[in-house]
Amino acid sequence: MSESGTSKTLSHGLQVLELLVEHPQGLTLTEIAEGIGVHRTVAHRLVRTLEAHHLCRRDRFKRISLGTGLVRLAEPVEQDLRTLARPVLEELSDAGRASAHLVVRENAEQVRMLMIVEPRQARMHVSFRSGQVDPIGRGSAGLALLSAEPPVEGEREEIARARTRGYAVSVGEIAPGITGISAVVPTGRDTPGTAIGLSLFEAPDPDELGRLVVASAQRLGSLLK
């Protein structure tokens, strides 16, 4: 145990998983050791333990990546929220002819993409990876969540604007050329903030899309209360 009362070994194991999330193409054992700042022997023991629980795996080139055991562990996470949100996201995606996203606040600095639903009738659409983590101050979902808080000195103009109109708009902040339009879901619960929105290549009428997003946020909020 460390002086803070936490397990140093467990902490290192979680750091390995977090490092592999950032490198989906896989890493060598040496790269993992350097990435978390431990000796290669320690990294080897950590990886072997994670492999035993199917949380990581090695390919034929001995590169290490995340394992299928994580799927089973992640399945119950926010299951109720995802179950209720899916039909709302599908309807929003079809109405806006764009990918619809559900984003939750991870902590004070980050948001996580919990779910994305792609449109069924669009020639092209934006695609993101579920579980993707982004800074809260960048992208429409994070800006929308920040707009639900009281104003603070020095905040971005986009946050104040979102607070006024009820939804946030960002362009090229999460991915080049991609517009995001998001609104906060009014859950009425003591839970991490949740935002719903659209991601698309072009937004010729952001106000109309904003109204669609706000309506969907209200609908999901009523289901969660």
Automatic annotation (TrEMBL):
<keyword id="KW-0804">Transcription</keyword>
<dbReference type="InterPro" id="IPR050707">
    <property type="entry name" value="HTH_MetabolicPath_Reg"/>
</dbReference>
<dbReference type="GO" id="GO:0045892">
    <property type="term" value="P:negative regulation of DNA-templated transcription"/>
</dbReference>
<dbReference type="GO" id="GO:0003677">
    <property type="term" value="F:DNA binding"/>
</dbReference>
<feature type="domain" description="IclR-ED">
    <location>
        <begin position="62"/>
        <end position="225"/>
    </location>
</feature>
<dbReference type="InterPro" id="IPR005471">
    <property type="entry name" value="Tscrpt_reg_IclR_N"/>
</dbReference>
<dbReference type="InterPro" id="IPR014757">
    <property type="entry name" value="Tscrpt_reg_IclR_C"/>
</dbReference>
<dbReference type="Pfam" id="PF09339">
    <property type="entry name" value="HTH_IclR"/>
</dbReference>
<dbReference type="InterPro" id="IPR036388">
    <property type="entry name" value="WH-like_DNA-bd_sf"/>
</dbReference>
<keyword id="KW-0805">Transcription regulation</keyword>
<feature type="domain" description="HTH iclR-type">
    <location>
        <begin position="7"/>
        <end position="68"/>
    </location>
</feature>
<dbReference type="GO" id="GO:0003700">
    <property type="term" value="F:DNA-binding transcription factor activity"/>
</dbReference>
<keyword id="KW-0238">DNA-binding</keyword>
<dbReference type="InterPro" id="IPR029016">
    <property type="entry name" value="GAF-like_dom_sf"/>
</dbReference>
<dbReference type="InterPro" id="IPR036390">
    <property type="entry name" value="WH_DNA-bd_sf"/>
</dbReference>
<protein>
    <submittedName>
        <fullName>DNA-binding IclR family transcriptional regulator</fullName>
    </submittedName>
</protein>
